[in-house]
Amino acid sequence: MAEFTMELNDEQKEVRDWLHGFAADVIRPAAAEWDEREETPWPVIQEAAKVGIYSLDFYAQQYFDPTGLGIPMAMEELFWGDAGIALSIVGTGLAAVGVLANGTEEQIGTWIPQMYGDQNDVKVAAFCSSEPDAGSDVASMRTRAVYDEAKDEWVINGTKTWATNGGIAGVHVVVAVVDPELGSKGHASFIVPPGTAGLSQGQKFKKHGIRASHTAEVVLDNVRVPGSCLLGGKEKLDARLARAREKAKATGGERMKNAAMATFEASRPAVGAMAVGTARAAYEVALDYARTREQFGRPIIDNQGVAFQLADMRTQIDAARLLVWRASWMAVNGKPFTAAEGSMSKLFASETAKKVTAQAVQILGGNGYTRDYPVERMHRDSAIYTIFEGTSEIQRLVIARTLAGMPIR
Ligand SMILES: Cc1cc2nc3c(=O)[nH]c(=O)nc-3n(C[C@H](O)[C@H](O)[C@H](O)COP(=O)(O)OP(=O)(O)OC[C@H]3O[C@@H](n4cnc5c(N)ncnc54)[C@H](O)[C@@H]3O)c2cc1C
User: Fold this and answer.
1) Which H helix or E strand runs over 378?
2) Taking every annotated instance into account, which residue ranges of this chain make up the domain Acyl-CoA oxidase/dehydrogenase middle (predicted)?
C-alpha cells in the first residue's frame, strides 16, 4: 500500500507537465471553435492519439498508479484545457472501465483496443446506462436483455439516453435488465459490437455546456449479440442472480432499490478532478484579469471585494483537490469508504466548480459575459459536474445514508 502523499513524484510531475503542455497548446486553442460547432473534435482526439494520451496504455498506467494521484492529476490537466474536448478524449475511458471492472480477460483484450481504434483511425466508445425514466433511480431501468439459448445470443430492447458518444461510438457498453424481479441486482452489462443491426442513435442533445462532447439517445431494437458479449460470462451472471434471489427471498421478496449506486464511489473522484480542472482554469483567468484591469485608477484586485473572492476561490479549489486526492488514494489502495469519501469529493469539487466559475464571470464584468473570454464557456461547462455520475443530491443521499449506517443499495 502506498502512503498518502500530497507531493507528486518526479515521474508524475513529468507526466503532468506533458499533459499541461498538450492542454495549453492543443486543447485550449481549439476550445471555442468546437464549443460553437457542437461536434466531436475528431482532429483533437487524433492528435491526442498520436502523442499517446488517447490510449488504453496511458489510462491503465494512471489507473494503476499506487499513489492514486495518476488519474486525478491527468483529469485536472486535460479539463483545465477545456471540459468539452477533454470529455471527448476521456469519454471512451468510461466505457473501458465498465469492461475492465466486469469483463473477462478475453473480453478486455478483445474489446478495449477496438474502443480506441488507432491513431490513423480513431474510434470512441459509449457507456449506456441512463434511460428516460431511470436517471438517479437506476433500479427503474427498463431496457431488457433476454437470452436465446438455442442461438446462444442475447436480444436487447430499450432506449438509453444521455449517452456520451452514443450512436457515434464503435463499441457500446449497454446495461440491461436480465431479471426484473431483482431491481438493480438483476442488471447485466453487454458489449454491442460495432455495426450491430438494431442499434441506432436517437436525438442528439443540444446542450448548455460541454458542447464539444456528443450526447445522444441510443435506441436498441431487437439487437442481437453473441453470448460472449455478456460481460463476465453467463456462469458468473447465473451465480450472482442465484445469490440475489436467495437474498430477496430472505427479505420477503421486496424489490431491491438502488437510488444511488454505491459502486460508483471509487470512480467519483475522477469526476471531482475534472471539476477541479475547470475551476482552476477559471480562477487563473480571473486572477490575471483582476491584476491587470484598472478602474478608479488602480487594479481591481486592490479592492477587498474582488481580492477576497479570489482568496475564497483558491481556498475552495485546493480543498476540493485534497478531497479528490484522498478519495482516489483510498480507492486505489482498497480502503473502505466508511464516510462515502468518494461522493464527498465529487460533491464538493463539482459545487466548487459551479461557484468559482460564476465568480470568475463576475470578476471579468461585461467581458466575463461574452464568448470573447473563456470563463463564459467554463461557467456553462461546470454545470454538468453536479449532474452526471450522480447529482449533488444523490451524493448527499449516499453520504448521509453511509453516515447513518443505512443501506444504499
Ligand atoms: C452531458 C451528459 C452526459 C451524460 N453521460 C452519460 C453517459 O455517458 N452514460 C450514462 O449512462 N448516463 C449519462 N448521463 C446521465 C446522467 O448520469 C444523469 O443525467 C444523472 O444521473 C441524473 O439523472 P436524470 O437526468 O434522469 O435526473 P433525475 O434523476 O430525474 O433527477 C432530477 C432532479 O431530482 C433530484 N433527485 C432525484 N432523486 C432524488 C432523491 N432521491 N433525493 C433528492 N433529489 C433527488 C436530482 O438530484 C435532480 O436534481 C449524462 C448526462 C448528461 C447531462
Assistant:
1) helix 374-382
2) 126-223
Whats the size of the chain, residue-wise? 409
Question: Three-class SS of residue 145?
Answer: strand
DSSP-derived letter for residue 143 is -
- Contact yes or no for 154/145 (Cβ under 8 A): yes
Q: Tell me, yes or no, if 217 is annotated catalytic.
A: no
The pLDDT tens digits for 192-211 are 999 999 999 999 999 999 99
| Mutation to probe ligand 1, out of 130, 137, 261, 351 (largest number of atoms < 8 A from CB) | 130
| Residues 67, 64: Cα–Cα separation, whole Å | 9
By the 8 A CB rule, do 65 and 134 touch?
no
Confidence of residue 168 (pLDDT cuts 50, 70, 90): very high
Across the range 249-258, mean pLDDT stands at 56
pLDDT in tens, 118-164: 999 999 999 999 999 999 999 999 999 999 999 999 999 999 999 99
Contact 285, 364 (CB under 8 A): yes
pLDDT band at 235 (very low <50, low <70, confident <90, very high): very high
pLDDT value for 409 = 59
Q: Is 154 in the pocket of ligand 1 (CB under 6 A)?
A: no
Top pLDDT among 222 and 406 is at: 222
Does residue 215's CB lie within 6 angstroms of at least one atom of ligand 1?
yes
Q: Cα–Cα distances in Å, from 224 out to 114, 234, 236, 291?
A: 19, 16, 20, 60
CA 318 to each of CA 19, 77, 342, 359: distance values in angstroms, whole numbers, following the listed order:
20, 14, 16, 16
